[in-house]
Design goal:
The chain has ten helices and no strands. The chain is mostly helical.
Length: about 210
């Protein structure tokens, strides 16, 4: 019985500091957000960092600090914070979305698109796929943009979203025309019957 009591006391002594650290970190995050709302960004940054010094796996502190760095126009610093967050909490997929935007702001488009693609795939995020399609369009990567819109069309069909399906179908049809020779279904190398049928389907938007 004495051994059991000692073990229980030891377990409690380990749990209490952990719970206290979590509570303290959460309070610091609350304070950081209040300072941020009051446009006192320097103090907000300190509070987020203090929260992380107490609880290095506090997701809200990581995301809050990184987003604040982006708002302050410090994209490179925001990227470093998002990367550190992912090192500490690999399951924190929202950090991929944030890091993508930080990298895009720095002109590192290939890395940004890779991050956003990974996030969109993991979360089946329609909003992220729309943004990714826009980025590919800005980079004149029309075949990649077409592929994203085909994914959006498939998601719309799966979710029975008729309005989104119509929009995706229109975009697919337009992008097939733009891609032209880069899209095998639209511009066959040899005019055989099968390729002509695929071309006809592609031009109708699938």
């Amino acid at each position: 019985m004495a051994w059991a009591s000692a073990a229980t006391a030891l377990a409690a002594s380990l749990i209490i500091p952990t719970a206290f650290a979590s509570s303290s970190a959460d309070e610091l995050v609350r304070q950081a957000r209040a300072h941020e709302a009051a446009h006192d960004d320097a103090v907000a940054v300190r509070r987020y960092m203090e929260a992380l010094s107490i609880e290095p796996r506090n997701a809200e502190a990581w995301i809050g600090l990184a987003a604040l760095r982006m708002k302050m126009g410090e994209a490179a610093e925001a990227e470093r914070v998002y990367s550190a967050a992912l090192d500490r909490i690999p399951s924190l997929q929202i950090a991929l979305d944030g890091r993508a935007r930080a990298r895009w702001a720095q002109g590192r488009h290939d890395e940004a698109e890779a991050d956003l693609s990974a996030f969109a795939t993991a979360q089946a995020s329609v909003a992220a796929l729309h943004d990714l399609a826009d980025w590919y369009g800005l980079d004149r990567r029309t075949p990649a943009q077409l592929a994203i819109w085909r994914r959006l069309q498939a998601l719309a069909v799966e979710r029975a979203d008729s309005a989104a399906e119509r929009e995706a179908r229109r975009m697919v049809r337009a992008l097939v025309i733009l891609v032209d020779c880069a899209d095998p279904a639209s511009s066959p190398v040899e005019p055989d019957a099968t390729r002509r049928a695929l071309a006809s389907i592609a031009k109708r938007g699938g």
